[in-house]
Structures
1.
Amino acid sequence: MIHFARIGTLLMFSMFAFAQETSVSFKTTEVKPGIYMLQGEGGFTGGNLGLLTGDDGVVLIDDSMQPYSKLMLEAIAKVTGDPIDFVINTHVHGDHVGGNSTLGAAGTTIVAHHNIRKRLIEDGITGANGQEKAPKDALPTLTFSEEVSFHLNGHEAYVFHVAKAHTDGDAVIHFRDADVIHTGDILFNSLFPFIDLDTGGTVEGYLAAQERILSLCTAQTVIMPGHGPVADRAALQAAHDMLKDARRRVMKLVDEGKTQEEIVALNPLADYHDEWNWGFITTERMTETLIRSLRK
């Protein structure tokens, strides 16, 4: 059985090793006044970051990988000289919570779904040597079950939990008045998604989470995905339609009684390969994830 979380650990740090030999930076895009997305360039730095700034305080969404904490803080300092008051974790993976210990030690309040704190305590945090014990400073100090809202800088940042989606602790952040949404890893823009079945994720929950976000979107909504460039409702709809159809194609073969090896050999997702395949979640791995999820 493929354990994607462990594969993800190896992939992240092999990418980090490669990035050490290249010029890595964070590209900062102001998507709406006072709201930014930070995305790694020149190497894999982790998931996309969201940033809310203003006189009332600074809120960061996710915090990259631990080796890039200094670079991340330097990029944020170019936007605001104020300290980071809150960081919201969208889920437990090390490429999104790797900077928790650095921020926590500096006095930032870490906010997350309670399953993230539970998993960090019980399973640890992704490090260069795999799963390592999470230091106290990396643990969320403010947790929620279903939702929490931030009212800062003239914005409402509505944070809500989507169950059994990418993991069992996913959060989506909706800046309601600004019409901006940070999806965490509920959207890999123009990439096959990583659905972590070993950490409580499910294909059904992932599709339901995307449907909930779609219900909040207008044609003008700006979407900050977990990975990939800034997106819009059409991009999220395309990702949702692809996954729904991919699930249907694989389900047909599972219902016919075919083995995993037979299904992979038939390559039911071939039509999506050129556009959606990438280094971590290849067409074959996406097929295997769908098979595992359906057989559960």
2.
Amino acid sequence: MTVASIVPPRLLMEGIVKRFGATVALGGVYLDVRPGEVHALVGENGAGKSTLMKVLSGALMADAGRMELDGRPYDPKGPLDARRNGVAMIYQELSLAPHLTVTENILLGVEPHYGPWMLWRHAQAKASAALEQLGVDIAPNVEVRRLSPGQRQMVEIARALAVQARLVVLDEPTSSLSSSDVDKLFALIRRLKAQGISVVYISHFLEEVQEISDRFTVLRDGETVGRGETARTHPRELAAMMVGREMADLYPASVPRVGEVILEVADLMGSAKPQSASFRLRRGEILGIAGLVGAGRTELLRAIFGLDVVRSGKIRVGAYVGPGSPRQRWRQGMGLLSEDRKKEGLALGLSIADNLTLPKLSPLGPPGMILPSRQASATRRWIDALAIKCRSPWQRVGTLSGGTQQKIALARLLHADVDILLLDEPTRGIDVGSKAQIYRMIVDAAQGDVAVGRQAKGIVLVSSYLPELLGVCHSIAVMCRGVLGPPRPVSDWNEHRLMLAATGQEESP
């Protein structure tokens, strides 16, 4: 008899079923996590991962199935009850209160008190102990809004340790982190593991899953379709389990057929960043922008699109020269996919159809009118093309998964038929199958289709994922401390050279 068979799993979820009306979100899921184990939970967007974790956290009640925590029945009445039982959730969208201090955030909801009085010294001591256990140097009295994204993530994990968490769930924890912050996070996860704390790690980056996890569980269409030891499973096998088929090459072949210059940026300077940026984008070209988080890549796109102030320099969009408002940029044939889809990219309270068709309403009815039948028909075309999982074109965008929301944000640019696409982290939070679809659509947009009268587009692609830039783009420029280096053919670059240029150690290959 092995030790693993004697010690009960830290977490057991067996036969978990959850329905929303006629929709079966979970159809009998099985998940077991051992003490001191990093267990990867993977699957496409809409596979059921978020619903399963909401059942675990007490945010949703399962319709059937059972749960155990360290061999005892576990049935949380709500998120606070789950937290008190030692289950801590750390979501992709961090749930911190930015106007409160680190101490106040760490102990939010479980503050030590005596009657109506808060025991501040005790609270500060508990918060400091949690931060010390993590091995991070963050002042407990600083306001969270003053911290970097990586530091905020550490505060979230410190919240888990402050209530003596036995199980920590990390949902897409590296989506907004720099490579150095990712290294720190992985070192921290290994320390948690050494302390006997179990970690459920949710990620679409299969290379991260390979590096940090011990075992994995794959969900597809609300069911468990694969389990095993990570070290013995090739990433291609994982991807095949996720999508239900063998994955072809992730990055489609793309032969650039560049045409005239449709966007020219010269010596562009923003309010703070960029400090200097110059490039030319030709029709049919996919230009990648690499760089570290905070280098100024997002600010560059925002300045070009008219969202941020331009202090000096020249922007030429086709025949138009000079800065412009976002509304003018749309009319000039330019569209932006924002990095922050929840605050800037989408109207979460509106339907898929309204979000997708908003920039181009003229084909949907006579002047001054929108015919719902035409709007629904136009929306369904993109729902089918991008395999968007939804009930209907009229479903509210805020009810969809993050990856599905990202697809809709991209479909809006393609529906508007703009000539220039500014894409800021277009595959963040997207599963591997959907990434392949997004890459195919980016390449198709760049190439155009003469047979149906669709012109080739020019695309500027900002991404923190270097294999994506190397796999999709025709040329790449690197931004370092607000300064954009000259674009060079993708054949001149590899991941090592891109990282050297991003850290200022090498200007060009």
3.
Amino acid sequence: MSRKRIDAVRKQFQRENLDGVIVNHLDHIRYLTGFTGTSAMLIIGRKSADFFTDFRYKDQSAKQVKGAKIHIIRGDPTGALKDFSKYNIKNHRWGFNGEYLTVTGRKRLEGALKDAILVPADNVFTELGWVKDSEEVANITKAVRIADTAFERILALIRPGVREREVAAELEYQMMMLGSEKPGFESIVASGYRSALPHGMATNKKIQKGDFVTFDFGATVNGYVSDITRTVVVGKASPKQKKIYELVLRANKAGIKKVKAGVSGKAVDAVCRRIITKAGYGKNFGHGTGHGIGLFIHVGPRLSSISDDKLKVNNVITVEPGIYISGWGGCRIEDDVVVTRTGCRVLTTSPKNLLEL
């Protein structure tokens, strides 16, 4: 699989008239080679692929890296490039991903490859990992199931007087016990007025009766993450809470129904946004409707009002409309779905009816 992925990158950079690309983003390196360490560089040429790391990862890279020749070097991989003459041929064009290369990093590359030409090649990496193979979908599906089960287990803990951080800790513990390698990202538990914060990380705030509580969380399986959001009410829901919840739920279901290969991310966003805007809460839905997930929590395609991304078969994306009212609270409902030719397959199974706990 690694060779196929590297070959796909090779075809892409050849279209850009490049002699090769320098891959320095660890998530991209993992996707292309299987390496999970924290120090590496991958260089893909027209006929070669070379992986660089240091002595700490000698045994690990020997077991994990596929599709590239392994070089164990001293110090930083960038500095070692000057010893490899095949990379420093006059006027050879080497692409790099500017999104993940600092100004200092570029200067160091220029110093190591003085005769070569460094060219921004973000297009080569733009859709890297967006379309999933069957193994990737299986990993994400398992990560979703773990998160679903963990959420079911912590529902009994949600009651007045319990702190947000206590619930978040238990949620992450349950995911780990169910097989998650780590949280997919820092878990969000936001209650009461704090549920109006789309990224309201858990605090010491105590949950109170009548609070909306929004949970945004995910598990990790073989590096692949899930990303799920559910909102509940502690006690009996008020008429306003019911109204807001039903609007968000309608938008969520409408967005899922719109998902299909060939549809734009902008079109899915528009379906969700129209429902919320028509009800008078358009200004309270200030983020995009969704995004791709995979080895990292935010990848393409994007579902937003400014996205021109087109959905493809086996994209795995989130659909997550929300309404947030400052000082009062908010609600978001998020599912993970696999794009198909005729629609999508919803992976998330946690209940979406309004839970009054």
